[in-house]
Amino acid sequence: MRLLLLGFLLLPLVSFADNASLNVQSQKGSDALSGLKLEPKVTVEEKAYRIYGTFKLEGWQLIVDRKTPVELDEKLRFEILHPKDSPNGLEFELTAISPTGKVKSNIIQIQVQRTVLLDDGEVAGRYTFKAGLSLTSVSYSQSDSQTLYQLTPSLKGSARYVLVPHQWDLGVSGYTTTLPLISSTSAGALLFYGLNARAGYRLILPEYPEWVFTFSGGLYVLSTIGRTDIGYSGVFGPQAFPSAQYTFSTGEKLVGYLKFSPVATAVSELRFDSNEFAFGFDFTPVAPKEGFFAQYPISYALDFSFLSLKTGNLSASSHTVGAGATIAF
What we know:
Layout: E1 14-26, E2 36-38, E3 41-44, E4 48-55, E5 61-64, E6 68-69, E7 77-83, E8 91-97, E9 103-118, E10 127-142, E11 148-164, E12 168-177, E13 182-183, E14 191-204, E15 211-225, E16 235-240, E17 243-247, E18 253-262, E19 275-284, H1 292-295, E20 298-311, E21 314-328
Antiparallel strand pairs: 1-3, 1-9, 2-4, 3-4, 4-7, 5-6, 5-8, 8-9, 10-11, 10-21, 11-12, 11-13, 12-14, 14-15, 15-16, 15-17, 17-18, 18-19, 19-20, 20-21
């Protein structure tokens, strides 16, 4: 039963940016460097910080870290690129040398602040939806019957509601298997279906902007239909559903999740050795800039599930593997 997935209730597209400013200090034992004006705002590039300024001491030469001359334009303006991987970290020295050899220096410190950039589309009250299809392998057995194996297409879908942007959301997801392509018996198909309802909280770590963690919990309901001699119905339980999303520097996203849910047909029968444990991965490539998939991004999922059901007089187990794709809209 366990199928797959589903859920993923689209994790928010959250990213981070660095803002930088300058702190200027006189070099110890040196006069303050007059005629130098640095703009407080620094442009943050992929591999360097770009610093702007003007230098108005006629005839003087301006040097970075006592080795790299600074070029001035006709208006005495200049730009300095300070590499992010500089051995000196966020600090460098500006030295001015007069025509007579007099030296004045300043220490320039780049101060970086990390800021969360929130997706403009992440607004309270917004719904997002996903729908997909997977090919699912199910091996199911119970105490009073033979093991059943099926290879079957599965339909899945999910909806997410933004409660507090980039913090809290609500979601539902569901799946159902369809008529099997391959079955170990000709006695008829056993169809599996399930429904998840949960609330989730996103944890963002500014030190690791490529990661977003989501902690969810809720209710899980599962059942079977199509056969009277095998299967179960009315099974439910609480679920824990932590997940993590990693965004690559090239824009692709990889999501991994775990799900654990004690299950039974009555609250009094809930126990940890009767449960479903599942995990899976969801990969979203960079969407093209135009065309159908630019508007409706596609993701690829791989899911594993293990059910051990002990409730009333029924003891059953299943192993499920699903692989497929989903579209967000």
